[in-house]
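User: Teach me something about this protein's shape.
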Amino acid sequence: MAKLLDQVLVVDVESTCWQGPPPHGQLSEIIEVGLCTVDVRKRQRLAKRCIMIKPVRSRLSEFCTRLTTLRDEDLVGAGTLADAVSILKREYRSPDRLWASWGDYDRRQFERVCKELTVPYPFGVSHLNIKTLFAVLYGDNREIGVDEACERIGIPMEGTHHRGVDDAWNIAAIFCHLMEHFQLPAIPPQSISTTT
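Assistant: First, the predicted structure itself:
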């Protein structure tokens, strides 16, 4: 099946975390999938969504709550990782669409946690690292955070930093800016040379 390029799924995950290594017997798990769909043709954010996931091999630490603002009571009605994967596949056709995140952490975390919990990986092989794309397009010699990138291009951050749903929304705004600002003019097919 051909890849759908009408929308890009901008994803940001939050996971259980600690100030230091995990306690014995616990591992970092995804507890929130923030998602923002982007209309590629219009270069606009369409909608955002928060998918909460109840951890099964870890507990929220005080450090994690301070960082993300998420508390145990926020996860009471949350589904499983398998539920989240099912939503991504069924409602967003995630295996067929390009997905993007700020850096590679989200991709690696999904790959690792899905493998450890024997849950099917929800995405296809195409992942766009907007953090690297931003640095390359601006000719930077280092990658920067979402907050610094928003400040640099004059986009106000919305919501709470380190909440997946809000970070996905802000990352999608940066992505829309990049598409708009760095769009190359269309090249007529007859002007493309096929000779070397």
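Now, about its shape. Confidence is low (pLDDT under 50) at residues 189-196. Residues 4-191 form a domain with the Nucleotidyltransferase; domain 5 fold (CATH 3.30.420.10). If you'd like, I can walk through any region in more detail.
User: That's plenty for now, thanks!
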